[in-house]
């Protein structure tokens, strides 16, 4: 996903048209933001720093600060920021990524880029971690749409031993911890059941090993 934005520097003014939120694929890498910085003044500008600031934890920039060494009058410079979003990014929410542009003489401008992370494409149940475990382990799963979710634990004979989740959850990434202090060592099965409007009931199962 590539985002292009224009920054117009003239004296101490920065102009930027409002933009709708750019859609970013779920848990994606190789995204980029290109900030085109145009010096519309009559003088050269030296040492323009473009920096991504106050970023949410789920956005990972390869480089947070880029320096445009010199911008001649009427010249345009490009600051390209490559980034990825992890699976814990909130789905469907508009997030503003803030950039600070600083000239060598201390003038400061800001620019915000709005992004929204798309939901995952498919339902998915991950292998628990750690595995084997004692006494706690984490179970993660993905929902492409809002769903009625039931997450249960069974012993190896198929007897239900615990219900971890039974509620409606939003699209995106979810995780649940199971603490097995009151259970004996052995193999267990965790089952994710998905239901909802226009959703055919789905079941996902995986095994995990409790070792005490």
Structural class: mainly beta
What is the radius of gyration? 24 Å
E-strand count: 17
Helix content: under 10%
Residue stretches low in confidence (pLDDT < 50, at least 5 long) are 7-18
Number of separate structural domains: 2
Could you please say which CATH topology of the largest domain applies here? Immunoglobulin-like
Question: Count of DSSP helices?
Answer: 0
Query: What proportion of the residues form beta strands (DSSP E)?
Result: over 45%
Query: How many angstroms does the end-to-end distance come to?
Result: 46 Å
Q: Could you say what the CATH architecture of the largest domain is?
A: Sandwich
Q: What is the CATH level 1 assignment of the largest domain?
A: Mainly Beta
Secondary-structure element string: EEEEEEEEEEEEEEEEE
Shape: elongated
Strand order of the largest sheet: 2-1-4-8-6
CATH superfamily of the largest domain: Immunoglobulins
Instruction: Give the biggest sheet.
Output: 5 strands, mixed
Mean pLDDT: 89
Please explain how this structure is put together.
With 212 residues, this protein is an all-beta fold. The protein folds into 2 domains: 2-117, Immunoglobulins (Immunoglobulin-like, Sandwich), CATH 2.60.40; 124-210, Immunoglobulin-like (Sandwich), CATH 2.60.40. Helices cover 0% and strands 62% of the residues. It contains no helices and 17 strands. The strands form 4 sheets. Strands 2-1-4-8-6 form a 5-stranded mixed beta sheet, with no helix packed on it. A 5-stranded mixed beta sheet has the order 3-10-9-5-7, with no helix packed on it. It has a 4-stranded antiparallel beta sheet with strand order 14-13-16-17, with no helix packed on it. The radius of gyration is 24 Å and the shape is elongated.
């Amino acid at each position: 996903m590539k985002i292009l934005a224009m920054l117009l520097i003239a004296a101490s003014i920065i102009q930027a048209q409002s933009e709708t939120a750019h859609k970013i694929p779920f848990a994606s890498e190789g995204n980029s933001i290109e900030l085109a910085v145009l010096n519309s003044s009559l003088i050269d500008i030296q040492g323009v720093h473009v920096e991504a600031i106050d970023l949410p934890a789920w956005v990972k920039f390869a480089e947070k600060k880029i320096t445009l060494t010199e911008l001649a009058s009427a010249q345009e410079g490009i600051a390209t920021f490559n980034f990825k979003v992890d699976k814990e990014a909130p789905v469907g929410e508009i997030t503003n990524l803030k950039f600070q542009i600083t000239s060598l003489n201390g003038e400061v401008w800001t620019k915000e880029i709005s992004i929204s992370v798309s939901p995952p494409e498919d339902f998915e149940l991950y292998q628990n971690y750690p595995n084997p475990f004692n006494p706690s382990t984490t179970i993660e799963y993905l929902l492409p749409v809002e769903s009625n979710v039931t997450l249960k634990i069974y012993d190896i004979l198929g007897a239900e031993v615990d219900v971890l989740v039974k509620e409606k959850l939003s699209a995106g990434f979810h995780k649940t911890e199971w603490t097995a202090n009151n259970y004996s060592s052995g193999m267990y099965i965790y089952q994710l059941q998905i239901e909802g409007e226009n959703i055919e009931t789905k079941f996902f199962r995986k095994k995990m090993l409790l070792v005490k």
